[in-house]
Design goal:
The chain is an alpha/beta fold. 42% of the residues lie in helices and 14% in strands. It contains 7 helices and 6 strands, in the order E-H-H-E-H-E-H-E-H-H-E-E-H. The radius of gyration is 18 Å and the shape is globular. One 3-methylbut-3-enyl trihydrogen diphosphate binds next to helix 1.
């Protein structure tokens, strides 16, 4: 059997276009996208993927209309509240990475509760990136690193190794993504996992996120299994 990627990360893009093409408001696209999340969790479990990271809201997405931002915050809160029982039952551990302190207080509480209730789950590890930016993550890491230097806990005369720097990221215990999938045809990272994606494999599709199907997911895994990952080493 082919080895599945251990960690799959997805840039779930195209909800707005999906809605507009159906004459609906953008939030309807986000609702359809949220349903897709539950399906993808199942596909990951079936395929033996251990870590799934979903890009739900970037640090730049705050620029959107107040109506859309508010709708997204409420939708994420609703999903966490209503699905946490399902996550516990299906052994899915939920964690949120990003600037949680910028989120509305009710969502922060829902996140804390979902993280606590699923903390003992050891099946799929689901990470949701909310108010997440790769640059913000690196800046937050540097801030904490600088504090450790000031407090004398770290020697700053040499640059931190990758191993040391990783400890300051949002989820140091999570391995780097092996495969990053982006839907809706865009070919860019949009500030996702900048540090962690150094050697990730990319796969993209023109399909909009709410239409993303198991066939595409399997095609991404199939493509991944044929990649030669050299990590800077020599070709065999
Ligand atoms: C992705 O869909 C979800 C978020 C960024 C929150 P978009 O809302 O970006 O959809 P498009 O790209 O406008 O179609
Ligand atoms: C990236 O999508 C962020 C998420 C999917 C949450 P965007 O739609 O925000 O990215 P750009 O604007 O196309 O780069
Ligand atoms: Mg988009």
């Amino acid at each position: 059997m082919k080895m599945p990627p251990r960690h799959v990360a997805i840039i779930m893009d195209g909800n707005g276009r999906w809605a507009v093409s159906r004459g609906k408001i953008r939030l309807e696209g986000h609702r359809a996208g949220a349903k897709k999340v539950l399906e993808v969790i199942d596909w990951c479990k079936e395929s033996g993927v251990e870590f799934l990271t979903l890009y739900a809201f970037s640090t730049e997405n705050w620029k959107r209309s107040a109506e859309e931002v508010d709708g997204l915050m409420k939708l994420m809160g609703l999903l966490l509240r209503t699905k946490v029982g399902l996550f516990v039952k299906s052994n899915v551990r939920v964690r949120v990475i990003g600037r949680k302190e910028d989120l509305p207080a009710p969502l922060q509480r829902q996140i804390a509760s979902a993280e606590k209730r699923t903390a003992q789950c050891d099946g799929l590890n689901l990470q949701v990136a909310v108010s997440y930016g790769g640059r913000a993550e690196i800046a937050d890491a540097v801030k904490r690193y600088a504090q450790d230097v000031l407090d004398g806990r770290v020697e700053a005369s040499t640059a931190p190794s990758d191993e040391v720097f990783r400890r300051y990221l949002y989820a140091p215990d999570v391995p780097d993504p092996d495969l990053i999938i982006r839907t809706s045809g865009e070919f860019r990272l949009s500030n996702f996992l900048l540090w962690e994606s150094a050697y990730s494999e990319f796969w993209k599709t023109g399909i909009l996120w709410p239409d993303f199907g198991k066939d595409e997911f399997e095609a991404a895994l199939e493509s991944f299994s044929g990649r030669e990952r050299r990590m800077g080493g020599r070709f065999k």
